[in-house]
Amino acid sequence: MEIKSNYNTELEGKIALVTGGTKGIGKAIAERLYQAGAVVIVTARNEPELENTKTHFIAADLTVANDVLKLEEQIAEKFGTIDILINNVGGLTTPGGGYKVLTDSHWENELELNLISAIRLDRTLLPKMQEKKSGVIIHISSVAGKQALWNLNLAYAVSKAALNSYSKALSTEVASDGIRVITVAPGATKTPPMLKFVEDFALSSGIKNEDAEKELMKHVGGVPMGRMAEPEEVADLVGFLVSPRASYLTGSIYAIDGGSLPVI
């Protein structure tokens, strides 16, 4: 089967939803899909500081079940259904220090944000994708899901590992319905939360930001490429995976980490 693509128009006629789409990786993905011709809806808890005329914003807190239902209603009313779902909402919200410092609340909040929110949204939007026998779902995970650092991101890493497993199982369940489900696992990426994490680590350790960044890279075994990823680099990978050029890809996890994972 020959597939010909114009990268500037290959998503024309497609409607995409990017969660957490106002900052960092989510914002870069929204921009990339727009450039490829898609109509892009972004959702986040709060409206972006600067209006973006390229995308359509709908406020929603995906850790709240009722907000997800309202989001689905607004999408159905304004756009009908979606073709591409980018589950990007997530983040590291728990303290470092290992199991002793993590309370039940820490674990529950991390799982709600990084796992349950994606499951909840998939469950809400998947039926219409199944009806039309097409769709692509991308779960934005993390290399932490394969390499947990007990003293930095234990609960976060566990939640992302669970997301990886869920995404793989879902891909198998819905493949026969014409729906592809793929996981993208970025490593350290220059997003506002990551830069804030580096800054806080530097402050608590009494070192400079650049030294804190180097120290964090050592924790993950080093980054052979010697730098963090730019959000646009992650977005370019996602742009390919949702395109017709990736039509035979599903169920896989794609790490984009500058070579940091010490495993095959």
UniProtKB/TrEMBL annotation:
It comes from Flavobacterium panici. Pfam families: adh_short_C2. Belongs to the short-chain dehydrogenases/reductases (SDR) family. GO terms for molecular function: oxidoreductase activity, acting on the CH-OH group of donors, NAD or NADP as acceptor. The keyword Hydrolase does not apply. The lineage of its organism: Bacteria, Pseudomonadati, Bacteroidota, Flavobacteriia, Flavobacteriales. PROSITE patterns: ADH_SHORT. This is SDR family oxidoreductase. Signal peptide: none annotated. Keywords: Oxidoreductase.
